[in-house]
Specification:
The protein is an alpha+beta fold. It is built from 4 helices and 14 strands. Strands 3, 6, 8, 9, 10, 11 and 12 form a 7-stranded mixed sheet that branches. Strands 5-4-7 form a 3-stranded mixed sheet, with no helix packed on it. Strand 10 and strand 11 form a beta hairpin.
């Protein structure tokens, strides 16, 4: 999922629509990136846990938002088409039969060794440029989450959350217990004697 086709050609969404169905690609600034190899089992478990959390909480809170997962196309423009691991769209006008047209409110990428650099660099720059309100990068091996929030059309400094913390998803107003996402046992913090 990290390597771009080495060519000077600038690919468009129309090119993308004619590529073989069995191959998965993304286009960022006209460069084509292969989406292979397939994600690991750990990646998929974490992605599923986040999706289940989001679907359940959005229904419970009666939010007018939809949760999507890969391989759903997000078409920012003719030269930028991606398939984020997970994303949430609260503007129903952006949801079409074929794809999502425009920026989701929240995008979550679960990294793999082959995607980590692209998620941190190319995708972060893309999501910032198109005004994605909140971008989460989940690191399965490091068991942490990096969060970027839009401030004055730019992402501020990232916030880092460890697996044993609760993270607020600001764009949706939801609190997510990360130990449940990473499927880990969290020990209750004990008070030090004499301290309150």
């Amino acid at each position: 999922m990290g390597e771009a086709k080495s060519t000077d050609q600038k690919y468009t969404y129309q090119d993308y629509l004619h590529w073989p169905d069995e191959e998965r690609w993304e286009i960022i600034a006209g460069a084509a990136y292969s989406m292979t190899p397939a994600p690991s089992v750990k990646h998929q478990v974490i992605s599923r846990n986040i999706e289940v959390f989001l679907v359940n909480e959005i229904r419970t809170e009666k939010k007018e938002c939809e949760v999507f997962d890969a391989p759903t196309d997000v078409v920012f423009d003719e030269y930028n088409v991606v398939q984020p691991d997970l994303f949430v769209v609260c503007d129903k006008a952006k949801i079409t039969e074929e794809n999502i047209k425009g920026s989701p409110d929240l995008i979550i990428e679960v990294t793999s060794p082959s995607t980590s650099l692209k998620d941190k660099r190319e995708k972060k720059k893309l999501y910032e440029r198109f005004g994605v309100k909140e971008y989460l990068i989940v690191y399965p091996d490091g068991e942490l989450v990096e969060r970027f929030l839009i401030e004055d059309e730019k992402y501020g400094a990232p916030e880092i959350f460890n697996w044993d913390e609760t993270m607020r998803i600001e764009s949706l107003g939801l609190d997510m217990d990360l130990w449940e996402i990473f499927e880990k046992e969290r020990e209750e913090k004990k008070e030090v004697p004499g301290q309150r």
